[in-house]
Design a protein that fits this description.
The chain has helices at 34-41, 44-50, 80-92, 115-119, 146-162, 191-209, 230-233, 264-272, 284-297, 320-325, and strands spanning 23-28, 54-58, 96-103, 108-109, 112-113, 167-171, 213-217, 251-255, 275-280, 304-308. With 331 residues, the chain is of the alpha/beta class. The strands form 2 sheets. The chain has an 8-stranded parallel barrel with strand order 1-2-3-6-7-8-9-10, surrounded by 5 helices. Strand 7 (213-217), helix 7 and strand 8 form a beta-alpha-beta unit. Helix 1 runs parallel beside helix 3 and helix 3 packs across helix 5 (146-162). The longest helix is centred in the middle third of the chain and has 19 residues, at 191-209. The radius of gyration is 19 Å and the shape is globular.
């Protein structure tokens, strides 16, 4: 069996890095150079007027890495100077910036594989399988290959330092290939232990060494056999027992995109000792329903709400779910 570290860290109820007021957070994807960030700067007054006080900026490989310049996704990417300017502008409007670096999963999209597995194919969880990424959702890195984190952690450090961040989102959603027959290193192994190892390895660096808060998506920690969320918002591939194997001071971004009568996974995570950031997408009514349900729980572990768009939006403050529902996040 894999050696999985079982950690039971109590949630940090008075963590100084958690804003005292509820998070009205917006996730941004596709802004990957200094000009993109400058374009967001012009929209900050409108976002602040909506009550937005947190931006989760997905950076991934769109950064001018010095440690591994070969892993830049393009020639024109975000620089340290551009990141610092953006953070300063956000702070002037009372907005905290949390960078995101997608870990483990989402190492490709459609036929495109991202730089880590292109430059270092030996890091691929399923090397040589699924040509042109056909037959899978996204490629994943191998959490049992120690050279992966030797390469990735310096990238994370550069992003964290550039954005002067005290919190990092590490992704970790929609992981489906752990233990797959096409994975030489993990075939036949317990997906929950593999997933927990990946989380705990990141935690050791992000939280223990760098003293940051760590956020991750929650779908792989929800038992699809108990909670009727389906195979995307919950786990049918047996990663969910990892919920018992990871630290409880990780913040869980619990995403649900459809209107439901209830969202029991919020209480699942809260009862286990996690803090939770409910997350919605483009459906205005579904977003309103999740916010209302979360507020109705009246539990301090609910941090607020995260609005996602998963595409570039021309006028961020007018993104329909945000425009309609941001005002209901705070009491």
């Amino acid at each position: 069996m894999l050696a999985v570290l079982l950690i039971a860290v109590p949630a940090a109820a008075a963590d100084k890095r958690v804003t005292a007021e509820p998070w009205v957070a917006l996730h941004l994807l596709g802004y990957q150079n200094d000009s993109d960030l400058e374009a967001i700067e012009g929209q900050l007054p409108g976002l602040a007027a909506r009550g937005v006080n947190v931006i989760v900026l997905e950076v991934d490989y769109g950064f001018a890495f010095r440690s591994h310049p070969e892993l830049r996704i393009a020639e024109n990417v975000t620089t340290r100077a551009g990141a610092r300017r953006f953070v300063a502008a956000c702070r002037r409007h009372g907005i905290k910036v949390i960078p995101e670096f997608q870990c483990l999963g989402h190492q490709s999209w459609a036929k495109d594989t991202w730089p880590l597995l292109t430059k270092y194919p030996e890091f691929d969880l399923t090397p040589g399988a699924f040509p042109r990424n056909e037959g899978i959702y996204c490629r994943e890195w191998d959490p049992l290959n120690p050279r992966v984190l030797e390469t990735v952690l310096p990238l994370i450090d550069e992003i964290v330092d550039a954005f002067d961040a005290d919190t990092l989102h590490v992704g970790m959603d929609e992981v489906f290939l752990l233990g797959h027959d096409a994975s030489p290193s993990t075939k036949g192994k317990d997906p929950a232990e593999l997933f927990a190892k990946a989380v705990n390895d990141l935690y050791a660096h992000v939280v223990k060494e760098r003293k940051l808060q760590m956020i991750m998506w929650g779908d792989r920690l929800i038992d699809a056999g108990r909670y009727d969320y389906g195979e995307w918002e919950s786990s049918k591939n047996n990663t969910w027992p990892a919920i018992y194997m990871i630290p409880k001071d990780v913040i869980i971004a619990d995403w649900h995109y459809e209107k439901r009568d209830s969202y029991p996974s919020l209480s699942l995570f809260l009862d286990k000792g996690f803090r939770v950031l409910p997350t919605s997408f483009k459906d205005v009514e579904a977003s309103r329903g999740l916010i209302s349900y979360a507020r109705g729980l009246q539990r301090p572990g609910i941090l607020g709400h995260l609005f996602t768009s998963w595409s570039r939006v021309e006028r961020l403050a007018d993104w329909p779910p945000l425009a309609a529902n941001a005002g209901s996040v705070k009491p």
